[in-house]
Write a sequence for this structure.
């Protein structure tokens, strides 16, 4: 009994200095009684032991993996025999908790282990009490009640099923005083939001801005890059060597008017471009005229002419190579950009 009290004192002292780093472990000294199967021919006896459990991470089906040791000192034989048996039981179990509330829970366990029994003396019929070594399975039920955040009382009953010679069922029931190393509910560290800036003031946070340093007043897309509605000349169906947009393709320009319809403070800048085919001076003029043609359609669609400016760049700002047919087609375009 003195050893049990000493163990309780030691684990209590340990819990007082426990910290968050060693949370997830439990230590439980136990004391209890036994009721042996009739095949053992042994009287009921007290036992003592200890458990150490590793708590699994949240989300696991089982809550603990527990290693245990139990000691039965001198379980006397029944009748008038002069023998007894000492037992050492080593076992490993998986435990599943069923919470009733924060402080009270039931649990179930399943596991197995090894029983090392040392016989002494003889039975009533004079036969020797032999040693008994056997593997065993165990299943059990229990309850825990947390007296404080770290300390809990534990009641348990389990069936120890030994396999040597014949299968025997042996009841072990116990009271334990458990210690959680660290708080069951770790302190919540407040998350301090780190303010994210918008250095260029375009409305897109710096951590999402793919085009930092956008000039003030530039309308940008969701990535922080300049918003551009690109109209390729082929889709606009200008007539041959013409700057007049055919009626059947005017609906393409509507994308621009629809974009600014609910943004009365937006101004539109139309930029015309060509490929490098032909004379550069001619291409410059052609790009200017085609930008102006898009402006005319926008005015027809109800956009205020005073909010539209045009600029031609000729062949000076290609977006693709001019050495292929496909690249030249991409360079023949009118870009709509926006300011606010």
């Amino acid at each position: 009994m003195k050893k049990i009290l000493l163990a309780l004192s030691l684990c209590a002292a340990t819990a007082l200095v426990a910290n968050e780093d060693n949370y997830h472990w439990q230590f439980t000294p136990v004391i209890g009684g036994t009721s042996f199967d009739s095949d053992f021919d042994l009287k009921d006896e007290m036992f003592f032991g200890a458990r150490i459990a590793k708590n699994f991470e949240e989300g696991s089906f089982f809550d603990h993996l527990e290693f245990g040791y139990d000691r039965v000192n001198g379980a006397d034989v029944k009748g008038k025999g002069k023998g007894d048996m000492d037992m050492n039981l080593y076992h490993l179990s998986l435990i599943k908790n069923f919470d009733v509330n924060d402080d009270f829970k039931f649990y179930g366990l399943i596991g197995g282990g090894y029983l090392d029994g040392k016989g002494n003396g003889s039975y009533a019929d004079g036969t020797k009490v032999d040693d008994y070594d056997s593997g065993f399975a165990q299943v059990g039920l229990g309850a825990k009640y947390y007296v404080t955040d770290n300390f809990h009382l534990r009641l348990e009953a389990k069936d120890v099923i030994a396999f040597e010679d014949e299968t025997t069922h042996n009841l072990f029931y116990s009271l334990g005083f458990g210690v959680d190393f660290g708080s069951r509910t770790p302190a919540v560290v407040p998350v301090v939001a780190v303010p994210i800036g918008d250095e260029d003031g375009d409305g897109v946070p710096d951590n999402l801005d793919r085009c930092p340093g956008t000039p003030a007043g530039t309308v940008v897309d969701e990535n922080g890059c300049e918003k551009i509605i690109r109209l390729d000349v082929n889709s606009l169906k200008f007539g041959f060597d013409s700057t007049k947009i055919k009626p059947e393709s005017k609906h393409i320009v509507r994308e621009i008017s629809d974009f600014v319809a609910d943004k009365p403070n937006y101004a539109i800048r139309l930029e015309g471009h060509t490929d490098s085919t032909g004379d550069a001076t001619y291409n410059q003029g052609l790009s200017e005229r085609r930008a102006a043609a898009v402006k005319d359609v926008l005015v027809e669609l109800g956009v205020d002419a005073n909010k539209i400016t045009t600029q031609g760049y000729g062949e000076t700002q290609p977006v693709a190579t001019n050495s292929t047919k496909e690249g030249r087609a991409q360079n023949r375009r009118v870009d709509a950009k926006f300011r606010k």
